[in-house]
What does this fold into?
Amino acid sequence: MELRLPIDPHLEAIRQLLSTHQAIVIQAPPGAGKTLRVPLLALSVVRGQVLVSEPRRLAARLAARMAARLRGCSLGAEVGYQVRFDTAGGPWTRLWFLTDGVLVLRLIHELTLPGVDVVILDEFHERRLQTDLCLALLRVAQERRRDLKLVVMSATMDAEPLAAYLGNCPIVRIETRQYPIEITHWPYSPLPLEQRVAEAFSRLLSYGMTGDVLVFLPGAAEIRRAAKACSELAKQAGYEITPLHGSLPPEAQDRAVMPGPLPKLILSTNVAESSITIEGVRTVIDSGLARVPYDSPERGLPSLVVSRISQASATQRAGRAARSGPGRVIRLYPLEDYLRRPAFEPPEILRRDLSALLLQV
It folds into this structure.
């Protein structure tokens, strides 16, 4: 299966660095191919297992499926995945795609990871609590196993502090040529979010748009309301509405990301912001919102709070529209709002209660 990706010209340099350094950092924008190419490259460099940590179950499953296809093997043979309540693979599997939670449990059980030669932390820029813990545990593991390789891959973040933490390791920066994106900011509106999404979808249809539409919404409740608001428009235009969020069964998630006979209106949480690529998307509607886990010291309970995303997240979302050609993005918030937003999301470790994490380790 021949597939040309922007990262391909850099693979030989990455191979040499992987052979000569204990750790490397790879910084590449979404769609560069790092999630597929680097693990398969590592598999050809070492004899043991390669573990790839992904932030979400959907990303781990889809990456494993695509990597198996590129490798020319069946999923669950040489390439597999392990997420909560679902595993494809066995003792014969050498390349594992895991969620960060599964990797944490494995590190707690066997810190030095016997039989594993390379660990890859993908999408590190999200700075999830479990991913940060993985990094800390892996640094301890490397002190006991000098032959254990660590690759940290990121899209949008300041790579120098991370490289310094990893012993001033080398940084590989990959630039990709992106198709032009037309970004439109809408003024504030008192209308409910689902009505603004329907209005944006209607306007796009009047422009004669082609391709799939990806809509970023905070959560499953907003997705259900937006699906209801857009149902008649989608039916008239011949679009299939497909929800996409972490609570859906794998079959429904696959239906949203895989090509189908009809153009799709994909209503998604930030699960589609990174890690996975949905081919055919030419238009993005961005609510500018996401549900973020916080721990309230007053209540003593965790909660999901609807928050404004950072500029980096907005850039990630916009990039989903320009993978195969010029794209269009409608942001349902003004430009002034965007400019006031923080450049990056704060790490999860700064807004979560660490008691459960400490008890876990």
Remarks:
- Residues 220-237 form the longest helix (18 residues).
